[in-house]
Amino acid sequence: MRTFRRILCPVDFSRVSVPAIELTLDLASQSGGQVLLFCAVPPPDADQSRQELERSAADQLRAIARKWLESHVPCEIVVRFGEPAASILDAEKELRVDAVVMATHGRTGAEYVTLGSVTERVVRESICPVITTRPH
Q1: Are 72 and 29 in contact (CB under 8 A)?
Q2: Burial 21-42 (b: 16+ CB within 10 A, else e)
Q3: Which residues pair with 77 in a beta bridge?
Q4: Is 111 part of any domain?
Q5: pLDDT along the chain (136 residues), means of 10
């Protein structure tokens, strides 16, 4: 059986991310692994500072870690700036992860065409296994 020692879990702070966080916790617990809780932040606009955005995202990730992960598995907070799919793909290489666990919003039709799918792109281009979850 393959073990996942370093698991990247991208979150977008929506409730859709919860099943991915739960699955990541299960996988990390079973394999004695570490969770890399990840957020891709869009580049700041004129009214925002990069430091403020990074701090806000990191604070939200730390809150998620406290609630779901800290007392169970080792966890690291990772914030990157850029388009989500590209940021995830870059992080998985840079951080040398064994797997990515992420949620899919399940969009279809015109909504899918308009918004695209971060998860689909990561699944297609990833160099490691990608495990996807759907909303409850």
Answers
A1: yes
A2: bebbbebbeebebbbbbbbbbe
A3: 37
A4: yes
A5: 88 92 95 96 82 94 94 96 96 97 71 63 95 85
